């Protein structure tokens, strides 16, 4: 699986930007761009990822997609089962610092989640057990929701944990 660093470099070259120009657009130093591209800095903050995608003129999903899924769009998350990745052979992505793959999701049209507004992207790592405080994809009485959990919650079936989220800047 191709890592994020080489993808940043490839997209920068396609956009015909040098490191200094990209750094100015993103609001970082050109040394930081070098570190991102080489993989010396393995974690990039959410705001910087959004700014990076804008500067490179590509959707955030394209920046995060390693091409293994054929450039598929984010999976559409609905309040109704089945889970968007079930039975589809959906592509996964590996985020820096994460030990397990995740799915890139966005709310389906006409769907609203308190913790995931329309147009937002999230990486959800499938799981069925509580792993500490955070936002989880849960099922209660056959309905899916994204909820903040501070402790184990009886009556909720866990389907995944949001490991990262990106909101649109114009919202």
Automatic annotation (TrEMBL):
This is Helix-turn-helix domain-containing protein. It comes from Halomonas salifodinae. Pfam families: HTH_3 (PF01381). Residues 8-63 form the HTH cro/C1-type domain. It comes from the Bacteria.
């Amino acid at each position: 699986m191709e890592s994020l660093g080489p993808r940043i470099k490839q997209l920068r070259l396609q956009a015909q930007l040098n490191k200094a120009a990209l750094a100015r657009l993103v609001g970082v130093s050109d040394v930081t761009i070098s570190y991102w591209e080489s993989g010396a800095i393995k974690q990039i903050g959410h705001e910087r990822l959004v700014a990076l995608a804008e500067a490179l003129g590509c959707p955030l999903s394209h920046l995060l997609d390693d091409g293994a899924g054929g450039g598929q769009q984010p999976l559409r998350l609905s309040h109704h089962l089945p889970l968007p990745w079930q039975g589809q052979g959906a592509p996964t992505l590996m985020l820096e610092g994460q030990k397990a793959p995740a799915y890139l999701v966005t709310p389906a049209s006409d769907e609203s989640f308190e913790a995931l507004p329309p147009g937002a992207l999230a990486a959800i790592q499938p799981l069925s057990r509580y792993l500490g405080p955070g936002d989880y994809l849960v099922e209660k009485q056959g309905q899916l929701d994204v909820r903040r959990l501070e402790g184990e919650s009886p009556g909720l079936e866990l389907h995944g944990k949001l490991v990262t989220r990106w909101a649109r800047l114009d919202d």
